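Dear colleague,

Following up on yesterday's call, I've attached the two folding results inline so they're easy to grep. Please treat them as preliminary; we haven't cross-checked anything against experimental data yet. The first protein's sequence and structure tokens come first.
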Amino acid sequence: MRGGSLENHIRELLNEGYYWRDKPWPIISRIPNDMNNNRVVDDPQAYKPELVSIGPFHYQNELLLPMLQHKLRLYIRLSERLYGSSAIENDLKKTVDALGIVVDDPIFNARRMLPALRLDLIKMENQLPFFLLEELYAVIRTIDQDPLSLTEYACKFFAPLVLQSANKMPTNVAPVLGSSSHAHLLALFHSTFKPRSPRHHAVSSPTSTSICIPESNQLMDMSKLRCASDLRECGIKFSIGDGCLLDIDYRVQSPRLKIPYLVINHSTISVFRNLLAYEQLCDRREPSYFTPYIMFLAQLLKTQKDVEMLRKGGIMNHTLASDDQMVMEIANLSKEAAFAYDPLDCYLHMPIKYIITLQNTWWNKSLMHFRDESEKYKSYIFSVLGFYMSIIQTIFTVISANQNS
């Protein structure tokens, strides 16, 4: 490699737009102020790296300076393998230092390092155009002759963040493996989640039911969806679904709502938040799945009772302090997702229609109305009963006292 060849090659690719003909241009951006202002939870590190910076926004951040010495050591090792000496070629040094690429290094043998690195590399403000990473990987690949592409390596590396437990991993996680088909690592990770029917999700045939199915051009307000415990009272059964996390399936004939297994922890919340940020900032031609998914979850999980019901049913689990905290975390995420929610682009459009149609039948509306009204007047009824019971108790006390006299 001649001096400056890699840098010049990358500049030529950018100028020619070779990688992005007929594709959305990769968006590498900071989180806009309005998104930061609207964020429900004040988490300054939500979209920022905490261990390793790759890309321009947090380069030489004081909190990340301890990692710079490891970057330099990695550069020297790479330079020795490429050129047979530790002589530094300016072009390669600038590129490696700017990208902050981290390869095999003893520091990452520590148990906490790899989980932290995975989270850092999918932070919205810690991204680089994917083809830049591929160009650098191509240099390393000439040495190792590795048969795997960078996309395949990245998918394996991010596999523990799939948000489902190891024994319940989805079977249809299939990102596009074409060269440079993703804007950056976060976009690649996002592509590993794809429902079976992206626009109109599979719903079983309603041949044996009298439910009236709404016309396809009618928009259904997601806020009308009842919580999980209410839906169970309406006769809807819940069971664990298979496939990708997004493969929520409603069976009309049962009726049954099948939800793929989900594990919620503090890392999950961070992953969801960055996936939502990506969907809000990416090109409109890119699919938006997590925005409606989070809002759907928030409608189901309104109370601790809803979380407990699904948790005991083996549909989801969490490592948070309580079921109430899980309700709060999902509610906060849904408030952030609401800014980008488009009912016209909701892949859960059909299941929502079927469920709301069922819950709005005369019997279920009457049942829910009676339940809601009874809850409203329950405290009043008990207070009145308590008042009359105290009067009766007083009367018996007076009678008893007179008899003793």
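Below is the second protein, in the same order (sequence, then structure):
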Amino acid sequence: MSNFPAHPAANLNSPAFKPSYPAPSPTTVSDLNPFAMDEAANSVKMYFKAEMAIFTLPVLEHVMELPAVLSPIADSKKFNLNASAVAGFFGGEEAITAMATVHLYRGRRWLGWYNSPGSYIIAKEFGRISRSRFWSGLFPGSNHPPVVAFKLDGKTGPKYVASHSGTVMQQTGHLAHLLTQGTDNSDIVPTPLPASRHATISLYHWYCFAMIFLGIISSGVTCFVIGSGDLDIDTVKTPAKGSPAGDGILLMKNDVIILKGKEKDVNVITKGKFLLKLKGEPEYTAIGLCSLLLEVQFLLQLLLIPQGSLIGQTMFLTSIIASWAYNSFLASLDEEKLQRKLFCDTIGLRQLTVLSFEASTRTSMAAFTCFVLCKDLPRPLQGIKPMNILLELVPNETPVWQKWREQVVAQVKKKEGEMIDFQSENVDMSGLDEHDRALLKDLLQDAKDAYDGYILMTDDRRSLKNTKSS
């Protein structure tokens, strides 16, 4: 028997408690008796005939409501729009690219007064310009000169071959690269050469407003300090005495740029580079202070923006998005096109001095280049070797190409007014089979097309000079 006391309402001798089945084993619970309600105790009592143990379960009068997992956003006292951590990193690349255009527009340094995002990224990028132990500790990494940090240098140009001096530069500088990029997206329509064949407000509001104001100040001051530098072109302004003309060619994959002019003028393209002079050289302490201000702005945003109200945080986020859109617009501009325009305006390379021609084949391009480089030179030619020019453009060493180059050089060396002959009947075809003779005939026709284009170009230049003089 159990030691639990019997309930007073239970009559153990009643027939209801007499089992009509075999007694259960000590570990088995028997049948479940009906419920009995004790209103005075306000409880439901269940009697289990398991060694006469009696359990009492209370009735719950009140239902407990669980709190909602998500509070409504409209309750601004509970909702927190924390955008402080995003503001220091979001839009950093666009901001750096936009800041790099500060030297390419006149008056651009005055247009940086807005709450630009990406303050932490900007500080890390431009803080490395400063050169001292203190700034290197705050902004670790390799120190770049300002001209490289603002992407005004660092690109390599194509191979350059001088037609008179024989100078060969396997790669040129950033300015030559800019000049070659202009061949793809130039406003000058190329003149096709003749072709016979073709090739293929609460206090919490003020926290956020203060951060917006600090962002405007830090961005504006940084843009002004960086934009106060002087951008110039560094080149060899005084070449050696007795230097020949700087005529030569820039060799690209599918294009050739012919340079004609004095040595000092061509040096600007082949050896020149942008030079950015900022105040405080060489430590550039002012740039370091601006970068430090941007980092302080980032830390204060982390601290104060979460303390702001929903209205203030929304205003802060709106200013960040608007500034990011403006930076994205500046970053979408063709930076190299702006640099190329600035470069051409600086050296006086006007559109009238640039002519563009489109050849149908590379052989026509090679012959045309040879005729242009030898233009207006006294005959017999001295100081220039047309054969070397052709070898740079078409270095094929088969008998067909050798005979073609010999014929082109022979015609280039003729004096002005002499008959130019590219007829295959007047060329020595000995040692060539039928296939090679047919190929040489086509190559000579390409050379004749190039010469016809050269004559048209010469006539156009004469008419242009007469128009300008009159």
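For the second protein, one point worth flagging: The longest strand covers residues 43-47.

Best wishes,
A.L.
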